């Protein structure tokens, strides 16, 4: 706690902290809007039983929760970096572990949602037991285990720098400090590449199979076509996730061709390639679903009406 206090101490109105305050003010409105939409969607899922009886909406709700956790952890790391807060590795490693696990869990959920659409089209009358709404939680648990295995192996082969004590030496909490070993860097890059390539193949496979099924079926083409567009949307969401891997290249190009400060470049890449995709991904998917969109509109109108009603109520006199 002393390290955190020391990192945050100082005059926040000094010239050095003015850019930090501006960046925080830019991020805060987007984060508030995102949190509001996510909470609204989760409230709709919890208050309407028919949503939770569908494997599709259960998977979507899990993606909302995962993206929210990933976004919050990313914002915390961003604030720590902007405030130049330092603390021991024993406190930094869990935060990085959580951020990495939720980041890897997103494409896994996208692939699972694509497979769910594939199963719904291929087996419309007899859904396999594993994809029923009362058992899909087992699949989600397996996804979390897989996403946690990769950062566990990554951190287990990490090499501590000389003179750094995990319990007492304060450091800046970023993955670059912990990924100092060449073996660890090679492992992380290779595994991430294979990981996202496998997810992309799953989404591509389901899209092609549903596309071929569309040509065979003469009835119910509308639902099959909708499922095909849904899988295509999952592919777009995967591309948004992959944008985070362009951070090092973008930072290098911007640094070579501009006179921006490194902190400004870091904020630019963080905002464009980490925050914006996380903001857009669930909102696009949620806004595309007509049933969910109608419930969101009704809930928003009811909330606004309640606020106006409370504002008109006058306090009783004594």
TrEMBL record:
Subcellular locations according to the entry: Membrane
Keywords per UniProt: Membrane, Receptor, Transmembrane, Transmembrane helix
Gene3D superfamilies reported in the protein's UniProt record: Rhodopsin 7-helix transmembrane proteins
Keyword Plastid belongs to the record: no
A GO cellular component annotation in the UniProt record: membrane
A GO term for molecular function: G protein-coupled receptor activity
Record-annotated membrane-spanning stretches: 20-45, 57-81, 87-115, 136-158, 194-212, 224-245, 265-287
Pfam families to which the protein is assigned, alphabetical: 7tm_1 (PF00001)
CDD domains for the chain: 7tm_classA_rhodopsin-like (cd00637)
Domain G-protein coupled receptors family 1 profile: from-to ranges: 37-285
UniProt superkingdom: Eukaryota
Family matches, as PANTHER family: G_PROTEIN_RECEP_F1_2 DOMAIN-CONTAINING PROTEIN (PTHR26451), ODORANT RECEPTOR (PTHR26451:SF991)
Protein name in the entry: Odorant receptor 131-2
High-level lineage: Eukaryota, Metazoa, Chordata, Craniata, Vertebrata
Gene symbol of the encoding locus: or131-2_0
């Amino acid at each position: 706690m002393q390290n955190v206090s020391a990192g945050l101490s100082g005059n926040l109105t000094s010239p050095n902290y003015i850019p930090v305050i501006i960046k925080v003010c830019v991020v805060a409105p987007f984060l508030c809007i995102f949190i509001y939409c996510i909470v609204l969607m989760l409230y709709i899922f919890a208050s309407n039983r028919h949503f939770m009886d569908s494997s599709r909406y259960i998977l979507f709700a899990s993606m909302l929760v995962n993206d929210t956790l990933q976004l919050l952890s990313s914002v915390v790391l961003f604030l720590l970096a902007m405030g130049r807060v330092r603390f021991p590795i024993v406190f930094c490693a869990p935060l990085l572990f959580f951020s990495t696990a939720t980041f890897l869990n997103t494409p896994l959920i996208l692939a699972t949602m694509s497979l769910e659409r594939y199963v719904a089209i291929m087996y419309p009358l007899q859904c396999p037991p594993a994809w029923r709404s009362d058992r899909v939680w087992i699949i989600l648990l397996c996804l979390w285990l897989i996403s946690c295995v990769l950062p566990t192996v990554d951190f287990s082969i990490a090499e501590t720098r000389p003179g750094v004590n995990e319990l007492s030496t304060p450091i800046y909490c970023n993955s670059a400090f912990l990924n100092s070993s060449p073996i660890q860097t090679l492992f992380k890059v290779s595994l991430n590449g294979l990981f996202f390539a496998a997810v992309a193949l799953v989404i591509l496979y389901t899209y092609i199979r549903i596309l071929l099924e569309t040509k065979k079926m003469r009835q119910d083409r509308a639902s099959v076509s909708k499922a095909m567009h849904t899988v295509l949307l999952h592919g777009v969401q995967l591309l948004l996730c992959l944008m985070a891997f362009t951070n090092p290249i973008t930072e290098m190009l911007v640094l070579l061709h501009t006179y921006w400060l490194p902190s400004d470049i870091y904020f630019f890449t963080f905002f464009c390639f980490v925050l914006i995709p996380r903001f857009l991904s669930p909102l696009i998917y949620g806004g595309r679903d007509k049933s969910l969109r109608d419930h969101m509109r009704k809930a928003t109108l009811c909330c606004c009406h309640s606020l106006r009603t409370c504002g008109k109520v006058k306090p009783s006199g004594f």
